[in-house]
Amino acid sequence: MTLQRATFAGALCALGLLAAAPVLAQADDPAPALKRVEVFRDAVAAPGHEAVVMRVELAPGRQAGRHTHPGDEISYVTEGEGVLLVDGEPPRHLKAGDAFVIKAGRVHDARNDSAAPMHLLGVYVVEKGKPLATPVK
């Protein structure tokens, strides 16, 4: 795998942002803000790392919750719209057809202010054996 492919795979990790739903869902809320379904997982060229591909859904009017990933996240918005919130950066409005990359360890969140779900395809290139997402207060 070339460095370019590894970088692309890491970008898909952005969906990791949405993949963190079970970890980030509020305990008092019966319906999670974020739903994720693992599509694929396999080793990559970087020793000790793997790529995880996730389908992600962020519920209308909800927020994923601030978190980090132990590797790069690359996501592509397939439906809907929302706001990407990365610490130290201005909020970024996202809509279907947009993509983004979040580098390993960056604190970030996503918010869906619309009345429809936001769907993403995310790829994470992360260290094997570590949680896909870690909540941040």
Automatic annotation (TrEMBL):
It comes from the Bacteria. Residues 55-124 form the Cupin type-2 domain. Keywords: Signal. SUPFAM superfamilies: RmlC-like cupins (SSF51182). Gene3D superfamilies: Jelly Rolls. InterPro entries: Cupin_2 (IPR013096), RmlC-like_jellyroll (IPR014710), RmlC_Cupin_sf (IPR011051). Residues 1-25 form the signal peptide. PANTHER family: CUPIN DOMAIN PROTEIN (AFU_ORTHOLOGUE AFUA_3G13620). This is Cupin domain-containing protein. It comes from Massilia agilis.
